[in-house]
Queue: 4 jobs
Job 1
Amino acid sequence: MPLDFNGRITPGPREIGFDYCHIIPATVDRVPTVWIENDRVVGLAPADPIAVSYQRDFGTEPNGIDRPDLLKQPADKKHSGTIINGISRIGFMQGGKIGALQARGAADDSRQQVGRVS
């Protein structure tokens, strides 16, 4: 069963003893491109729910094969899914635009969180 990113996400780091977590749910080249704080997607708007698939394109967002003109770097066969911030990812995602991780800001976001909880 696919993971539902629109509610509480478990199990996670808190279930194995961590007091706090601020993570991405996959590698930065995969969807969904969101931050998860504790057990919820940061900034998720109920009116813009997230759907993720590694098998099929939803057909609602541009992908790296059909829209190479939107890319900052060329897509390869593996990295040709949904385009987020000019980079096509592994897999397909729709929704979650407010909570979307912006690739160039990921390091800054991460540094801010480390400073906040240190």
Job 2
Amino acid sequence: MGIGDLRRTKSDVKYQLVLQWSGSSLKDYDEMIAMENKLIENLSGGSEVDGHDVGSGEVNIFILTDDPELTFSEGKATMGNSEHWLSARVAYREITKSHYIILWPEDLTDFAIA
């Protein structure tokens, strides 16, 4: 079995969690990569960073997970000292669905990927 065989696929997990904040500069991109690397190091075994997206003034980090609330808690602990946490939006969806369930901030009423 090779390393690629150990990688989870979207069909193996139930949810996609998205961490999102405003950003469009090269500095924002570099900070997103640093944050993504911290998440890779700190998330529990049931979650996997699945990539990122930058554009339309926003930064998104995508995480595959079976437990979005636990993953959110771990992500929040990882991002807690980051200036981006102040403007972060977090939501998840079932892999096979398009509707997002908002986790953060609690008063957010709409979440979308631009």
Job 3
Amino acid sequence: MAEETPVVRAIGVKNLRTDQLHSNPHNPRMLFDRVDMAPLRDSIRRVKILVPLTVYSEKKSGKYFILDGQRRWMCAQEVGLETVPVNEVEEPTLVENIVTMFQIHKLRLDWELMPTALKLELLMDKVKDRSERRMAALTGLDQAVVVRCKKLLSFPKRYQDQMLDADPAKRIKADFFIELYPILHDRVTAKYDWFKPNAFTDAMLEKHQTRALKAVTEFRFVKQQLNNSAKANRIGMMGRRLREFADDPALPISHLAIDTIKTAATARKIAKSAADLYNVIDALDPDQYYGEGELWKSLERLSELIRKRLRQLGRRVDK
């Protein structure tokens, strides 16, 4: 049975004083960078607000809170609009509030993931369900995004706060912690007595901020070397190199390289085979092979396997 999404009911459209409105405390977006809003601010200065904000009145306080239109409201304040058009709806429950916010924003550009994770945590606690599938159905988020959010929630608050810094220049992107997560929870690093997740995270942050790590995706190379060390029975050597890498901020990531000639050669072979198969399928006429059931079954199995492997890597896979 499809997940039933809580909805809020409309009351009507009217104008409200700009200073009567308040930010929604359960907005999963939270961070709004001023530079990104410049085009919207210029538009509102020229033609005012054309699409009404969606708001509700809190019975307890009588205050109006925004469900949809936070950026429009902020720009209206900055350009000095005294009133804004609003579409008032009935006050939602906590679950309806959070779910509605997710549903409103799900088709828009991605926003910072840590605020989303915090609201997802509140929703999971409220409905007493931490299932990725249930949360994806409720919020409209891709299931892989829910998994990424849960990874962020596993980090201590001080790291979460770094992802919430109001200054974009100081803010640490969520991708840093998501890419680091597999290393912190790897079965090989768990064997090292010296390995402490928070201390290692601090060391990697220093490397990231000094550009010794050129991209957060380099953590995938670290994970690959951990895997290779286990297969080659070189866990001890890898432990020494990883500790040296963490202790020396200037040491490059190449210091961790384990003999990967066979792995690299296999990867190139698979990539070439994948490219060849892509070209064959791209040139295939579906009408001509319409009745070849075994062909389509084989391609479906291949598609499912590729998606499975991509999910294991933490890659986002479209539905």
Job 4
Amino acid sequence: MSDIIYDEERTANWGKISRNYHKKKKALEIIYKICRTVLLFGLCFLILQPLLDKLSVSFMSEEDLYDSTVISIPRNFTFENYKVTASRDVLKFWPSIEKVKTITVDDSYSDDYYYDDYYYDDYDEEYYAYDTDSRERGLWAFIQRLFGVSIEIGSLFQTLLIVLISSVLQIAACTLAAYGFARYKFPLKNFWFFCVMLIIVVPPQTIMASLYLNFHFFDFFGIIRAITGESVNLLNSVYGFWLLSATGMGLKSGLYIFMLRQYFRGMPKELEEAAWVDGCGKFKTFIRIMLPDATPMLVSCFLFSFVWQWTDSLFSTLFLTNFDMLARNLGSITDRIIQYWSAINSVSGVGVASTAPVAYVQAMMATGMLICLAPLIILYLIAQKAFVESLSQTGIKM
């Protein structure tokens, strides 16, 4: 009888211990979920809070900027900040077409000038003339004279076209180099891959002087000088910018070579061997077997390349000073806003401050940043699936 009572007491104790264990486990799980939620929310808030602040300020009118009762939600909601920032006076964001003005100098002479040569002021209806010998020449200028218009492409489409071509050339060159490092053996392979790693480690600013001299006096093994008698100046030209990308020396090229090399090394060699058995050569195997399978990684590298070159001001300052690049225009947006403020207030009468208020300049800077960021967000939304797939396959932690 005592044994039966002892077994019942032990069973009751084990049941009590088990219930307590499950309660503690469930409590720990709840605490872990709460801590994880708070941590993730805090990280997301730290990342999104500056962006949300800029978004809020970009829709505020000038009165809201000086109203202490307005914190995050604008009281006078307006799109005027976006209109001013995207105008040709600040970022030159959108394309513009102007009708050519015919200016009569005297009774026997008249000529057509562009908007850049004669600026029409809506306030006092006067033309301000500049040196007409500095007019653009070439095919594009001839087309504009032919149709009697002055066309400005705008910084959006100029940046989009230049960066898109540069990113495609860069990824193509990096893919070929990465496949060679992953699959082939050649002399000094490790040394050359070490040089690729140096591209990642060494900042591009350290070779700025060398790039300037090489592209200012560009010559391909003396061939150009032997034919033309002088070297070619590729500075202030988009061809020098594209040449860096096409030769695997563009911005962050070493990182893309490393990422693609690791991806190709992880692909089974049996795929290539099967393609060789079916009669495919090495180039055809690369095009038809390796590239389609590496599409997620290629998309990921393309997004990285596009974003970094979109926001780059180093190479654009060196090679693209004659182009309206968004990153370079954004870097000088403060001076442009001050000039715009002085221009619109110079005709408003006596007593209007000619210096732009700090709050107004900051609001315009925030608006300009959002305008430059918008195309990148759209691009990410389009390529999001392939980008996430590449991260999940390679295990890269971003």
